[in-house]
């Protein structure tokens, strides 16, 4: 994969460029109407470093991306999008990215009460997500108006309000839970024991598990869901994330291994790691990695499938339009020939 170089340009807000992995630029703006911090929009250049002219609605497979819990998690999703695109020999689809540092902090404040060490400090304080939902909805509407033909949201906790955010959306709005559930369904997994149901484990923070959207989407596809019990959460999952925050990578890895093994022992076929903190925590050669699924990967693959399908649909539509145009030209040509013939015959009769 080619390296991505980033820099900040503090110029008036500019819309979509097109995707190229060679050079990447940021531009920022202040949305006075929403009283938010500047929202960077990721622009891509062609090989010469020049921006291609943006036309609203151009690119039938343009993807709108609402940033995740942090800049790092959003960039991880973009890397996945580029990597999975290149595996099929395709270029990454064009996209518009909205990333808001102020919103990232608000989302993090929803997840932080998941940690026992913070609960005691914020006891009695219940966070109202109304403003967060309105913020996310405004970004979704902006992306639609910017020519995005599909919206994705690479953030676990934001999917707690996916229905509210996507209400009234005029384009497809992919759901990360649906993407991973459908992939598991298509994988045609077999139960660990004959006659027993297919079980999928889910490891996430309390906030994500409480929202229940992963459980709902998995059950809709016929799976039974295995969740960490209270002891597993308190003694392995949450301590693993806290160890990671202390930069104790080895400790975090060991605790996560225990949490995954607990669910596998409870007959889970595979385990969904639905946490930004846990992605890529285990080394690639760890045997447990093969038993785990990252929903961000599933969302990236589903996004690419949609983009490829949209591109093919556009080709078919252009082909049909060309055929119709050709038929119209033939009809007009025949009509002209007929008129000329009739005119010639009329002259002959008058002579």
Could you describe the 3D structure shown?
InterPro entries: Asp/Glu/hydantoin_racemase (IPR015942), Asp/Glu_race (IPR001920). Keywords: Isomerase. GO terms for molecular function: amino-acid racemase activity. This protein is of the alpha/beta class. It contains eleven helices and ten strands. It has helices at 71-87, 101-111, 116-119, 130-145, 162-166, 176-186, 206-211, 213-220, 230-245, 249-265, 295-350; strands at 8-9, 24-27, 41-44, 63-66, 95-98, 150-152, 199-203, 224-226, 270-273, 292-293. Strands 8-7-9-10 form a four-stranded parallel β-sheet, sandwiched between helices. The longest helix is centred in the C-terminal third of the chain and has 56 residues, at 295-350. The chain starts with 7 loop residues before the first strand and ends with a helix. The relative contact order is 0.11.
Give a quick set of tags describing it.
351 residues; alpha/beta; Rossmann fold; 4-stranded parallel β-sheet; 3-stranded mixed β-sheet; 48% helix; elongated; disordered N terminus; amino-acid racemase activity; Asp/Glu/hydantoin_racemase; isomerase
